[in-house]
Amino acid sequence: MTQAKDILQTRFAWRRVESPTRFLADLVKYGFASAAALMLDYGLLILLNKYYGVPYLAAAAIGFSAGLALIYFLSVRYVFSGRRRLSSGPELLGFLVTGVIGLLLNEGLMSFFVETLLLSVPLAKAPTAGFVFMFNFLARRAMLFSPPAKMPERLT
Prior knowledge:
Elements lengths: L1 H14 L4 H32 L4 H24 L8 H29 L4 H25 L11
Helix pairs in contact: 2-3, 2-5, 3-4, 4-5
């Protein structure tokens, strides 16, 4: 029984140590989760804009919001599981704040690519999604799901 306890303690102690491998693992898992959210986001954007005539910025906002709900579920459940820094309420609030900033970036970039660079709506979504993905991953990981910071050694 004590051997199993030692193994568990070692495993949980290891999880508290940040490493480049952990960062890359999180990035890959978040990438897969984001791909699922992007499929939902992009699908709704095209469906609403092309087939139902919803203006592209409104369709982009609806699609992004649906993707935001999916990525929250996947992030908490699979990507950053067991590494919460906050309780559920503040965590959801932090996720929504980063989501609103991401939505503003999404809308601004979509508008820029469509109105200024004259890209089609489906084509404009590609660079927009890439930029917003990196912002969301870095912001959420830093604010919500990073391991606790280690206290620096005191200088003598």
